[in-house]
Amino acid sequence: MADLVLVRPLELGTLVQVDAICRAILSVACLVTVGCHAKVADKTLPPFRIIATDAGFEAPDRVAAGLRHVLFENHGSEIHESMLVKLPKGISAENYVAAVKKGSLFPEGALDYSGPGLTSPGETAEMWLGVDPGQYILICWNSGHAKTTPVHPFTVEEVGAKDDRAPKEDLVLKLFDYRFELSGDLHKGVQVIRIETPGPSMHEVDIYRLHGGKTTADLNSWRKQQGHGPAPAEALGGALDSHDVHRVVWLRKNFTPGHYVLHCEMPVTNTELTHADVGMVREIEIKE
Asked: What is the number of other CB atoms lying within 10 angstroms of the CB of residue 224?
């Protein structure tokens, strides 16, 4: 027969001490956890840097959800842009590109999230835009690149990082059907432009600085030829369209004296025309 072992019950005072110790441990654990989360939430992230080359994009594979500061650099020999596209569930980057190669300008289920517009070699474009969690790609739509240049897949993660702070705008650019409306005058120097799309259609804006002796008519003709031949202007970036016309983006640019053109090449539904063809072009002179 096994020996009986008598265990003395804990006294009330001891129980109170054990309970206090447990509570203290839990409190410390909670504080550590909250502290870690707070640290992530307060973390300042570097800009989402995108480098375009003639062979594709160099960019991070992951980025935090929220308002992000985007730096776009064109290291290629041709004009490039960088559209951020959110893919629908079950659709891979390969599926998207296959749809594009079949002629689709807006593959089903994919959502355009804007991005830096047409940018000449050696130029840099800077913007702020918002992204939601999901699977994305970067794609260049200029001059047939969407069918020939590899896209760059990346993931937008909900990691608790705080939004980047957009700089205070100097003026607002509104993209209407079919005109550009500025709240003030562009002038020499660094300026921040807040871009809104009252629509009702989707729009985009590319910013060009005309070369000496060239005109807006030269620019329009050159773009109708998909940018083939000598460029009559420098492409300085801009803001590509978004599936949600209520989204706002910010551009920051150093403007030098010269003649500029705001230009929208979104297609007019069920036609061969673009918004530029129906008047969505605006000339601006920036003086010394």
From this structure: 13
Q: How far apart are the first and last CA of the chain?
A: 106
- Mean pLDDT to the nearest integer, 190-212: 97
The pTM (predicted TM-score) of the whole model is: 0.84
pLDDT band at 26 (very low <50, low <70, confident <90, very high): very low
